[in-house]
Design brief:
The protein is about 20% helix and about 35% strand. The chain is built from 21 helices and 52 strands. The chain has a 20-stranded antiparallel beta sheet, sandwiched between helices. It has a 4-stranded antiparallel beta sheet with strand order 23-52-51-50, with no helix packed on it. β32 (about 665-670) and β33 form a beta hairpin. It is globular.
Length: about 900
């Protein structure tokens, strides 16, 4: 009896133990976390992603489906679902279901999604459609892997649509069969193994009627995406982000909130100890062309300075640590004089050249400026020279590298030198003279964030108070994925939507990350959206007349634009055949200012010629250079004249970028190939560079700013390539003569310029008959390529954009032209041009907008880089048109002079 009792007890124990062991190994109900394979880079969750939204709503509001990664996940699921059933059936099935998506790495260059759709017993009818689709279009194959049945949906011609597994609770699918096999393996692992991956079980996405989606991101992902910037920017981010997204009050942005543990970010948290999170206090100092902005909020400058000294004292960079030990004695006074905002603005750059402005607001502006200059002296700056004057500001060059990073951390790298000025009480630091001048021009004409209604609303309502803010405006900085990102991310997000011809990133304009730091947690906010309203198809690409100003006499030159054509500040000058110079105000008033001695032949150059805090505009007639000084209050323009030396080419004026001579304000070429500079003190042109051979210059010549001054590159018609320093001497081995290989043949002729592209070390040019030359900086030919020449009368020339930041090639006859890429491959043709009445220009307008304008006869046609015509009809124009692009409205503005009128057109191009 006792033996039987013990056997019974033992049996019960064994059964219970077996049951408990089974429950330990196999969970009673499968959760999404138990199905996701290890190593997921991101986990997304949303019950709104497959919703249908009217196009008119998407033009004014931001939807979760327009966020690039979410959009890619949505496309994967839609392709699978719509292959199995009609739209109404699919929408009925998917509506309201909280679908999860996990993103995985398949190879070094490929990422893909797995989707997990919750199902119930009521979905059997739809699931039958999935497993037995229309046999005339699709078929389902199946195989077993890890004891799980995997089905493969393929089209009749064998194209794979996706692989999937059906469980009691989920429809699990992916384009990648490998990922589905990983799910099958995961389903048979123990529950304990599932707990090894914190990301899998970490995200606990809340359910809320206002929430549109949730996303959890692994720390390695964040670090890889920020690998191209200073190491400190990665430290501002939490080790892991679990965000819950909802719409902003204006429905223009999605805002993701997250509270994450401080983890290893205590050094950065210490930087903001007792610093109250604040909004940006000085948005009136942020220029409109800001592509990237970093903001640090300071409420207690002395405490912040001490924390920053501690952080810099332990910096990982040997250079910064050694530099800071040299500067440390003078830093307390500098930090104590700081105001509430440290702002780093990276300005838009069509060339990719780094153009940075550091704005240091101050409690004591004079003390801050003096302390910064003392730091430059201690860091080794010498020969500062006299300040230059520009728009009422004194600009001083501090020739010492990475001074901002030495004082404020590696977040502020990118200053090979510091050009400084004071604006009010704030200290403004530019990494080049050109960047600082551009900044001051924008501030002077009010092209700043506070005058942009949408940007002001974004600042006041969408962004929240924070210790740290990082902001990127995508359509000004990158219209595609940054090439510094990992290749797999580039491949995922660079997919072009065949319906729209754009990538998912085109839906985004603003991206911001904000953080506030406590003792235990980091409170993060991610902002995604746009302030620009999308155009409806009714107005997209339509040429619309904005304003027309008529004159009593025909125009004899192209109108000169001053200001921004897209706002009320724009005014322009026009010249009629009576020789009258007419100012047209923003209100449309036509005010005759004076007579000039002939048609305007050159471009107009805006410079601070008179040192009166305003920009003057220089232009040339056949005999005279004129200085037009606008006085906006009295609506007048004073004209001053300077006679031209004999032989000056009056078609082109260049800015003396980088010149160490304070009084040089413009450059022009001589018919013999010499270079002249306009000296504003002497009020005359002086020869500064001499060509050893007399031959006509091929314009435009190139002005290249360097740390030591200004270089000039120019080729002459006979193939003489000149490369001058500012002092008038030429670099070793220059001038260089470009000749044929066979000396018995005729000398090469050049009709176009030579160009040294920014940040490159090879000069490019092409001879008339199509020999493309790549030339080293020692004057030797590195490469010579003969391009195809279909017609003997064709002429080739290098075709740089108007700012000389990039180049293409042109092959022309009297009545035809072909635009070629840099390798000489054809891009597009333009035919049936009017002989002798043609003008072609290459415009890089920023925000990724590049256009070719072709004026032929009395009309101008605009083309994109693929030869597609911009606008629905040609633009009436007797002269080359002036173009500006407004990225806030995605509109292209065109100012054109035709017959007896100046017309302002606009085209919505996005």
């Amino acid at each position: 009896m006792t033996k039987r009792l013990w056997l019974g007890i033992g049996a019960i124990v064994l059964v219970v133990g077996g049951w408990l062991g089974y429950r330990q190994l196999v969970p009673p109900t499968q959760t999404v976390g138990s199905l996701i394979p290890p190593g997921a880079l991101m986990i997304l969750a949303s019950d709104r992603l497959q919703d249908t939204i009217p196009a008119r709503v998407l033009r004014t509001q931001m939807s979760i489906r327009q966020v690039p990664v979410f959009d890619e996940a949505r496309q994967r699921l839609n392709r699978f679902l719509y292959a199995t059933a009609d739209s109404a059936t699919v929408l009925k099935f998917i509506s309201g279901r909280n679908v999860r998506y996990s993103l995985h790495s398949i190879s070094k260059s490929t990422l893909d999604f797995i989707f997990y759709v919750p199902i119930t017993s009521n979905d059997q009818e739809f699931l039958n459609r999935v497993t037995t689709p229309n046999p005339r279009q699709f078929r389902v194959l199946s195989h077993t892997f890890a004891d799980e049945k995997i089905r493969d949906l393929v089209s009749r011609d064998g194209e794979p649509i996706g692989s999937f597994i059906l469980t009691d609770n989920f429809l699990i699918g992916s384009v990648s069969g490998i990922l589905i096999e990983n799910v099958a393996k995961r389903m048979h692992q123990s529950l304990k193994l599932n707990q090894d991956d914190p990301v899998i079980n970490g995200p606990a996405f809340r359910s809320d009627a206002q929430l549109q989606a949730g996303v959890s991101v692994r720390p390695e992902v964040l670090q890889s995406l920020f690998s191209n910037v200073g190491s400190l920017v990665r430290l501002f981010l939490p080790e892991q982000l679990t965000l819950q997204f909802r719409q902003s009050a204006a429905h223009t942005h999605l805002i993701g909130y997250s509270v994450d543990e401080i983890g290893e970010r205590r050094d950065v948290a210490a930087l903001f100890a007792n610093q109250n999170p604040q909004r940006i206090q000085h948005p009136h100092l942020i220029p409109q062309t800001t592509a990237t902005l970093y903001h640090i909020s300071v409420s207690d400058a002395t405490r912040f300075g001490q924390s920053l000294r501690d952080l810099l004292g332990s910096a990982s960079s040997d250079f910064l640590r050694d530099r800071f030990s040299l500067l440390e004695p003078i830093t307390p006074a500098l930090y104590a004089s700081l105001g509430s905002d440290l702002l780093l603005c990276r300005l838009e750059s069509p060339t990719g050249t780094l153009r940075q402005i550091l704005i240091l607001t101050a409690q004591n502006g004079k003390q801050l400026a003096n302390s910064y200059q003392q730091a430059a002296y201690r860091a080794g700056a010498r020969n500062m020279g006299q300040p230059k004057t520009y728009l009422g500001h004194k600009l001083l060059q501090l020739n010492v590298s990475e001074l901002p990073a030495s004082l404020f951390s590696s977040l502020f790298l990118g200053f090979s030198q510091s050009w400084i000025t004071q604006h009010g009480t704030s200290l403004i630091v530019g990494n080049s003279e050109e960047a600082l001048q551009d900044y001051l021009q924008q501030v002077q004409r009010g092209a700043i964030w506070t005058t942009d209604q949408r940007q002001a609303e974004f600042l006041k309502a969408t962004l929240r108070p924070a210790n740290f803010t990082a902001f990127v405006r995508l359509n000004r900085a990158e219209t595609t994925v940054p090439r510094t990102w990992p290749l797999a991310w580039q491949n995922l997000l660079d997919r072009i939507d065949p319906a729209t011809g754009t990538t998912a990133l085109s839906n985004l304009e603003n991206m911001a990350y904000q953080a506030s730091y406590g003792n235990e947690n980091i409170q993060s906010t991610v902002v995604l959206g746009r302030t620009t309203r999308r155009a409806s198809k009714m107005v997209l690409n339509k040429l619309l007349l904005q304003k027309k100003t008529e004159f009593n006499a025909p125009l004899i030159s192209a109108p000169i634009v001053t200001g921004n054509l897209s706002d009320s500040s724009a005014q322009f000058y026009a010249q009629n055949n009576a020789g009258q110079f007419v100012l047209v105000t923003p209100q449309g008033d036509k005010i005759v200012q004076s007579n000039i001695d002939g048609p305007i032949r050159s471009n107009a150059l805006g410079v601070d010629f008179l040192n009166n805090g305003r920009l003057q505009y220089l232009f040339m007639t056949d005999r005279t250079l004129y200085v037009a000084d606008p006085v906006r209050i009295s609506k007048e323009v004073t004209l001053q004249s300077i006679p031209l030396p004999q032989g000056i080419d009056t078609s082109y004026l260049a800015r003396p970028r980088g010149s160490q001579q304070r009084n040089f304000v413009a450059l022009a070429a001589h018919h013999d190939g010499h270079i002249y500079a306009l000296d504003r003190q002497r009020r005359a042109f002086v020869r500064i560079m001499t060509a050893p051979r007399k031959s006509s210059p091929q314009l435009p010549f190139q002005v290249i700013p360097t740390e030591k001054g200004m270089d000039v590159l120019m080729i002459q018609k006979d193939g003489t390539l000149n490369y001058w320093r500012e002092n008038g001497s030429q670099y070793p081995h220059f001038p260089s003569r470009i000749e044929r290989k066979n000396e018995d043949e005729a000398v090469l002729s050049f009709s176009g310029p030579a160009l040294l592209p920014p940040n490159q070390s090879l000069i490019q040019t092409i001879a008339d008959e199509g020999q493309l030359f790549t030339i080293n900086l020692n004057g030797l030919i590195a490469k010579r390529t003969q391009l195809y020449r279909p017609v003997r009368s064709d002429k080739f020339r290098l075709f740089p954009d108007e700012d000389q930041t990039n180049w293409l090639l042109l092959r022309t006859t009297d009545t035809e032209l072909t635009v070629l890429d840099q390798q000489g491959q054809r891009r597009f043709d333009v035919r049936a041009l009017q002989s002798g009445r043609n003008n072609v220009r290459y415009h890089r307008l920023g925000a990724g907008v590049e256009l070719i304008s072709v004026k032929s006869g009395g009309f101008t046609t605009l083309y994109d880089m693929n030869g597609r015509i911009i606008g629905d009809r040609p633009i009436p124009s007797d002269f080359p048109v002036a173009l500006q692009f407004d990225e806030r409205t995605n509109e292209l503005y065109i100012l054109s002079g035709a017959q007896q009128a100046v017309q302002l057109f606009r085209i919505r191009i996005r």
